[in-house]
């Protein structure tokens, strides 16, 4: 790095810079190592950017340590601690640090392999979550081992996940149920369901039953064809 480069740290206010770079600069210049902040401050500093927290999280694989109250006692809910500044991603040679680029072709193959459904909870794209009337599932690509930073982005390390399961796997969402609640729910299942659940847990994903597989395939048909099959199925059952 030349002396000139060292002196030319860009300004986070520059809208021509990429969002991840602006977030990094804002954190370095306005928060500083050991400083605390809330996401709202970041959103106000760099307004009009969708998924700005995602861009912030993208800094973690580049060595940035940003802790939440779940990682560190003494922080209020919603408060974040910039524990460590990582690679200077505003410098050209570090721009791509920690970014695991998944090509469009890879995404498509992973979605197809996983039958266009979340391998964790089984939800299909656009379906509503059973416990939320307004949130529709969106599919995304997750890593088999979300915590292994810098892990390869080969297809064998990628899985189709809904955004909710993706956030939960990365510990970015608070658990919705306590361990106790979940265990109680499990103990009430019939033995064969318990066995199936154990097999899913061991595999790290939910195997699709034949009926669920058929639903996944139906879901991928154009709406008119799906409706035609629905009518045909209805007739075949009523005759
Ligand atoms: Zn899911």
Protein model, in words:
- This protein has 239 residues and is mainly alpha-helical.
- It has two domains: 92 residues; 77 residues, no CATH class.
- It is 40% helix and 9% strand.
- The strands form two sheets. The chain has a three-stranded antiparallel sheet with strand order 1-3-2.
- The protein starts with a helix and ends with a helix.
- It binds zinc ion (ZN).
- The site of zinc ion has 8 residues, from strand 5 and helix 6.
**Are there runs of 5+ residues with pLDDT below 50, and where?**
1-5
Helix vs. strand class: mainly alpha
Largest sheet composition: 3 strands, antiparallel
Percent helix range: 40-55%
Spatial separation of the terminal alpha carbons: 77 Å
Gross geometry: globular
Number of strands: 5
User: Any idea how many domains?
Assistant: 2
Percentage of β-strand residues: 5-15%
Query: Which molecules are bound besides the chains?
Result: zinc ion
How many helices? The count is: 10
Average predicted confidence as pLDDT: 86
H-E string: HHEHHEEHEEHHHHH
* Rg from alpha-carbon coordinates: 22 Å
Largest beta sheet: what is the strand line-up?
A: 1-3-2
Fill in the keyword field for this structure.
9% strand, binds zinc ion, mainly alpha
